Amino acid sequence: MNPLEGKRIALGVTGSIAAYKAAEIASKLTQAGSHVDVILTESAERFISPLTFSSVTGHKAYTDKDLWGGEGHVIHIGIGQNSDLLLIAPCSATTIARLAHGLGDNLLSVTALAAKCPIMIAPAMDGGMYAHAATQTNLRILKERGIDILGPASGHLASGQLGVGRMMEPNEIFDHVNFHFSRGNALAGKKVVVTAGGTQESIDPVRRITNRSSGKQGYAVAQAALNAGADVVLITAPTALQAPYGCQVVAVTTAQEMLEAVLQHQDSSHALIMAAAVADYRPTLSAEHKIKKHDNALSLTLEPTQDILLRVAEEKEKSGFPKYVIGFAAETQDLLTNAKKKLSEKRLDMIVGNDVTGKDAGFGVDTNRVSLLFSDGSQQNLALGSKLGVGETIIEHIISWS
Ligand code: CTP
Questions:
Q1: Span from the CA of 135 to the centroid of ligand 1 (angstroms)
Q2: Which pTM was predicted?
Q3: Which domains are delineated in the chain?
Q4: pLDDT (tens digit, 9 = 90+) per residue, 153-198?
Q5: Per DSSP, which regions of 213-297 are E strands?
Q6: Which atom of ligand 1 approaches the CA of 326 most closely?
Q7: Rounded distance between C-alpha atoms, residue 342 and residue 358, angstroms
């Protein structure tokens, strides 16, 4: 399930002020289970020491001294041919030029020439250097050759100016690499739709009715589905979260908008996982102008929204899609009884029963404690674990049915 487990990644580091950030990339990839071989150019060594990298990866980091040593040939051919990915981050304008023109005048560039694996680069340089016609032409050549170019981002540059040229942030680079390795996994080519967050229903232009859902569990399910190789559509109510890299994000606000988005994606989907907390009621009328304060009590009249899962079940009768449908039951009492009722009424393959009364489970926190109930009457109680772990277990069940 972890796309980075057991992968061999060659990480090239070149001369840029962003070189220090490469230590974080090496550390994150290593912690995720990959073997990372770091190669520093001579200029990179001026910014950061090989010792930093050998400390975070647990083995030797290579420099140009190794190219001219007795094992030089073995090193670049070995790393170039045995790696699953060559990532160069940060990648300077000079290294971009070396790659574009096939130069092999340092350990990193000869490794790139010998590489049989995909190559990703994260350019980092001053705005003017990035915009220069030579750099742009070189980048175009690399793109045409199938090299994946990550960023660069815009923002503050080392020169003190604002512009395009900053290296993409380490966590984003990590997400790109993770996504890259997930693509061949068990759910490759299968569309998985995940809903997340709490819908919002307008009372007037400044007020709304919503719930305490943070979206964390739904986003974790989406990440788990991506890691399993699926094409993920994340239909999300407003949250404070960053969507996992690689999802198609459909932003909605109300229960009605979520219903429409789900129905639009239902036909071709392998699985639908409704982790969203959908409003059951909305104000009958949303006032055109801000409701003014009075001394009297204020009554709001609410009308029911449509139940999305019930509509999906109706549509599925006709189309057969989504092949698998999973719901959540967030409960404060009688968890199993309520969850079982919803499992059968909404004609689900599985329901995730979620007791939201504990401090360590349910709304807002990173952990969860759930019971999975299946349409054949079986049940699996999961111990307290991360929301990503819960997402992975749900996705493992979908894989086992597929
Ligand atoms: N759900 C839905 N459409 C709604 C409300 C809920 O599809 N209008 C989905 C949720 O996304 C969840 C499941 O139904 O997967 C159960 O939601 P929950 O709020 O626990 O149950 P309700 O059916 O709304 O019943 P109640 O609020 O009475 O517990």
A1: 54
A2: 0.94
A3: 8-180 (3.40.50.1950), 186-401 (3.40.50.10300)
A4: 888 888 888 889 999 999 999 999 999 999 999 999 999 999 999 9
A5: 231-236, 248-251, 271-274, 281-283
A6: 15
A7: 22
